[in-house]
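For the sake of clarity, the format in which proteins appear in this thesis is described at this point. Each number in the token line that follows is a code from a learned vocabulary of backbone shapes. One such record is shown here in full, so that the layout can be seen directly:
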Amino acid sequence: MVDRVTGTHNPWNKGWKSVPKDLIVLYGKEHPTDQDRIDGEGDHVGTKEQAVQRFYTLFNWSAGLWPSLPKPAVPQQPEDATLRQKVTWYDSALLKAKREYGISLPPGYLMDANKDQRYPVLYLMHGYGMAPAGFSATSLITDAFVTDSDVKLRPMIMVFADGRCCFFNRVTGARDCRETDEAGVELSSKPELERECNSGNFYVNRHGYTAADAAPYGDAFFELMDTIDQNYRTLPEAEVEAR
């Protein structure tokens, strides 16, 4: 992924045709020193530029996933991002709470010409301590790539799952799995609410010291997938697998 001419990071190449469906990209140093951590960003050991490069790599890998699918029309001037991107929530039956997520519809999704077009979905899971709202900014990168005729990134629905822990109401015992309420008030500012864990759940089910002390975070992710399929024009699973 290094340009042979300039020596810069350039994942936009044809080599992805030989890359398997599942892959992992390693970065940083395997055995960082304390100074490496100081110079970098905590245990991540990497610069902001390297973080951006990882997103470029991810999106190029995504661009090669569905070579046989037709590409919907894309406007030269994409629809207003505020009409296509939002942070919202769904009712989680498993968590018994409102669960937050972010979504970004691709340029052209709202066009009349694409009203019958269905789109693959890319689920992005943010890092420890982050939230969907902060991760949604990556859609600005994909908007630019989708409308770039040289890059040829296929339009996709991007969903930003929430990996934060839910809030627990000390008074009522109820959960709320959002960052803000309907009035826009941050739930972390409410004294009666306490998080069930520190900064994140890593998208797995939580188990406490007793059988009653648990939260099916991992299972709730599949509820999110069902919610997206029910409310947006997603590709059927069989077509995605056939790609």
